Amino acid sequence: MNLVIVGSGGANIASLQAALDRLNCKATLSTDADTIRAASHVILPGVGAAADAMARLRELSLDAVLRDLNQPVLGICLGMQLLAEASEEDGAACLGLTEDRAKLIRSGPDRAVPHMGWNTVAATRSSPLFTGIPDGSHFYFVHSYALPVSGSTIAQCEYGEPFAAAVQQGNYFGTQFHPERSAKAGARLLANFLALDA
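Below the sequence we write its predicted structure tokens.
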């Protein structure tokens, strides 16, 4: 196991590393292209704004590296949105690995934005990422933008309207929720990702 977390400035990196430690997995935090290419598994974390995150990836010349990986890649929260074509947030062009576009969540009388806290997730199609995780399990969310349910969606969540809670496109996976903060279900999802063949 040679897991690399892309050091893209995500605020969730410490909690992610702690969650991986609990799974007896030591991860390397890196922005080095060769280190990322040589990894067996890659995690792209993210908290913050899409345009800023993409600017940092381009500055480090990691946007092209991430598009060309063949090993399992997991984008978390903003990291999942960066896999998409674009985001409404500041008109950011993203990695284009899925055809989706992140949109601002609509607020309502009983729906604050950001969407923050525990919510249930329902599978929309089979994926090894959710092996052994019961349908309707709770995961922890913190986000203001979301991807629509589409052909790349493997699980969805409801917050006023349905949105993609998790996606899969080839070797690229993404979760809008934070598995590292999602207790037993999140730990199982991370373990499932680590068990994927490189």
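Helices lie at 13-22, 33-37, 50-59, 62-67, 78-82, 183-195.
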